[in-house]
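re: ur question from yesterday

yeah so i grabbed the chain u mentioned. its 395 aa long if i counted rite. heres the sequnce exactly as i have it in my notes:
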Amino acid sequence: MTNLTFYEFFAGGGLARIGLGSLWTCLFANDIDEKKAEVYRRNFSGAPEMVVEDIRHITPAMLPGRATLAWASFPCQDLSLAGKGGGLRAERSGTFWSFWNLITALNREGRSIPIIAIENVVGLLTSNNGHDFQELITVITAEGYRLGAMVVDAVHFVPQSRPRLFIIAVKEHVPIPDELTTCTPHSIWHPIPVVRAYRRLSPSMREGWIWWNLPVPDHARPRLQDVIDPEPIGVSWHSREETLRLLSLMSPVNIAKVRHAQATGRLHIGTVYKRTRTQNGVKRQRAEVRFDGISGCLRTPAGGSSRQTILVVEGDDIRSRLLSVREAARLMGLPDSYWLPERYNDGYHVMGDAVVAPVVSWLETHILRPLAAGLVESAESDQYAGKRNHTLCLI
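ran it thru and got these C-alpha cells back, copy pasting raw so excuse formatting
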C-alpha cells in the first residue's frame, strides 16, 4: 500500500510513529520540548520533519503536502484525575484548540485530512462534568467528520495498566468498511463512561457516532518479569534502611501482600507507587504494592512520588529500587534498540508522557489502515470512473 502519510502533533519520543509502522510516512512532526525532540531525532534518522515549536505558532504553511492522517496526543494535565481539573480551556490541555485550528485551516485550503486520531486520558470523558468532551465532539462533527471513542487499556498488550481514550474521526466522504463498525458498544472498548458520554450528546451528534469494531487481542502479552532486569543500568538498589522505610509507608493490607509473597518462598516482583491518602481528615504518604504481574501506569517524574518502584521479594530477602528508564520503555512496548537519554528524568519523562506503541499498532492494523485502504481504493475508483466518463463523452 502506498501514499499513507501523516502529521504527528505533540509527538514526544515518536511512539505513535513506531506504532503506525513502516507503511506510514511522517510528513511533519511537532513538539514543544527540545529534549523530547532529541529523542525523536535519534530514533528516526535525524527526522528533519521534526519542528520544535509551541503548537500555537505552527501555521498551515509549515505543514507540507496533504496527509492521510493527523495524530494528536495533546497534553492531559488539565484533564487527568491527578491534575488540577482546569479542563479543555486550561493552559496545557487547551492546546487542543491550536491543533484543531490547524485542521480547520487545512480544510479551508482544500487540504482536509480524511482521518484524525486523538489520544488522551479517560478523564476527558468526564472533565468539566462532561462538557469538555461534548465541546470537542461538537467542533469535530461541525467540520464534517464522523467519529467514535474507545478506551483501550495497554494491559492487553504490555504488563502495564494504562487505560487511554482514543477518538478516531473520518471525513463524511470516507468509505467505512462494514466490518469496522458494530451496532452496539463493546464492553471492553466502550465501558460505561464512554456510553454515558455518548448519551449526553445531542441527537444530531449521535447520528454521526461510530461504534468502532476493534477485535480483542488473543495473543499473550509480555510478563512483568520479562521486562525487569536483575541488575539494571542507570538505577541502584536501595539501602536496607530505604527499603524498610518504604515498607513502613504501607497500610496493613499492603504489608499483608508482601508477607504473603514471602511465605511462598518463590521470587515475586511487584511494583510500588507512593500516593497521598486521606484518613480521618489527615493526609499521609502511603506506599501501595501490587504483585499481579502488572505495572502501575507510568507517569512523568513530577517529584519522587510519581516514579514507580520495583519491589523484589524472595523469602526473607526484600529489595527495592526505582524502575529503570529502559524498563519503562519496555513497558511502553519499545524494543531495546530504541535510543534513550542518559539522564534518568529526561528518559522517564518521555516514557511517562507517551502512548503505548503496540496499542497504536493494534488500532493501525484494525481501523486506521483499512480506512486508508478504502480511501485509496475509492480515489482510484473515482479516477477510473472519470476516465471512463470522459471516453463516453468523446464518443
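noticed a couple things. The chain is about 35% helix and 20% strand. also Residues 224-351 form one domain.
anyway ttyl
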